[in-house]
Design goal:
This protein has 181 residues and is mostly helical. Helices cover 72% and strands 0% of the residues.
Length: 181
Amino acid sequence: MDTTKNQEEVIKKIECLAMLVAMTDGLQEEEAQTLEYIAGRIRLFYQAKPAIEKYEETEDIEKSISLVDLPLTVSINAFESKEHFTLLNNELEEMMANSSSAREDYEVFIKMKASEITSDFERKIALIAIEDVFSADGVEGATEKWAALVLCKEWGITFMMLNKWFNQYVSPVLERGNQFE
């Protein structure tokens, strides 16, 4: 399944949010590497979305998995343009140049970017991707956690709710979606 143009735009927005969170304590090499590949994982979630939503509704894994092409795969586009990161950095630099309170303005910037993602499903996969990126270096810094919690609060999602959703609905679909018929 190919992603739509709209989904690709959301992927870029999620990547930008992941970068903003990871940048709070300085973007580490492992985080940057994970950021390079996170779009492929998000595409996997989009591919599995019909099955995940049906599984949430019915808890019938076979009925749910029948809605998607198998196997579910991570789709990585080699040499993807990351121009959206440059645009994000330019926008952030412009905003911070006139800042009287860097932390407050950074929080406002994160909230502005968060408001661009409106679907509950996309917010959840965004938080999964963001956590993957900021935890890639093995250190979950306090400022990264703060930035992720800003998103959680903005979207009304806790990490506990997210983990429960992932374990109860997403993980079974992904596991079944990667089994051979």
